[in-house]
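Aggregate trends can hide what the representation actually does to any particular protein. In the encoding step, the backbone of a single protein was reduced to a row of integers, each denoting a local shape. The record that follows shows the chain in one-letter code together with its fold in token form.

***
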Amino acid sequence: MTAIPRKKRHPQLVLLVLLVFFVISFITNILNSIIVAVKESFDLSLSAAGLLPFSFFIAYAVMSIPAGLMTERFSSRALLSGSFVVIVLSCFSLVMNPNYFFFLLTLFVLGLCMAVLQVIINPMLRMAGGEEHFAFNSVMAQVVFGSASFLSPLLYMRLASTQNQSKLFGIIKPWIPNDMPWLSLYVFFAVLAMIVLVIIRFVQFPKNEQQPLEAKGVSGYSELLNNPWTYLYFFGIFAYVGFEQGVGNWMAEYLWVYHGFDAASIGASTVSYFWAMLTVGSLVGLGLLRLFDSRTVLVCSSFGAIVCLLLSLFGAGSLAVISFPAIGFMISVMWSIIFSLGLNSMPRHHGAFSGILCTGIAGGAIWPLIVGYAGDLMNLKWAMLLLLIPLGYIFSIGLWSKPLIKNQTIRSRSNK
């Protein structure tokens, strides 16, 4: 039997991808922490405030496929650099023009940049760390992603505090209106993006490793769109992000409506624990993916999430504040596994396919709206039961997926 040559790995690119994941999470998840302050600053109605996250996530539907096309025309370095330049300009523009409509536009532009970054870094992580390690490295990226979700609210509390007398706050304060302390975060985001730009400049990128018979441009999409696996994995990403955001957005409201828990205290802390458990679950997932096939892990985690959702909706209040965060623990590995199964099921066009998969992030804009609309028609409890639909679909992926390359476990490595 002829030995398959081992491809060169690029650990410096893996570290760069993890850094980009950190920045994406830092900018994306802060909106949940500041939306109440933004609502007060602009004197918004609930529906107007609800357009803020919608404008961000819907940008994925607009930009992900064009981003996939761009990966076949431009280098990863150029696309990464261009995205961070736009982030810098958008953040500073918002600081100079702090009004509601410009904030909507800024969130949409930032969402476009996040879509481009997601499309680039997932195939890059697969190439740089190795196809057989992609599921493991993706979960590692989720650990970094979750960690950033904790740090950004802490930074907001520090920058927004009127008691803060640090030199950093003294530099930022003249730019920020007194009634908009949350705006200081976007100055920090711009500075962070500039730092990443410098790092990208000095990281060594390998030459693109094209697959044999790799088609370019629209022809690659034509082949993918005629492949039924494309749609199956697209709806997997759509289902996951929709479920994650559906639970995250309505959790505090549910605890207040059905158990009388204050949204600003117990509700907020429960949401915080949800993200904390998602990060802890990602760490546990790293070990599980070294022991078991990723499809087995996906089936078990999906079943556990179903049980936790039912306990949250039909259990006592004391149980709900435990089982809601437990959902975060159960779903922590889902994004990474679904994405890795999808890319490892395709022999080529990974950049274009990554663009199609990232379009599914728009599920984060759609499913919360479905739950809210259904809640107006009946009640929130029964509306949240609709989240069993995307969760059931994720469960099915572990049963029918057939990747060309499986994640490497301890057993498979010893057999090799």
The radius of gyration is 21 Å. Residues 228-259 form the longest helix (32 residues).
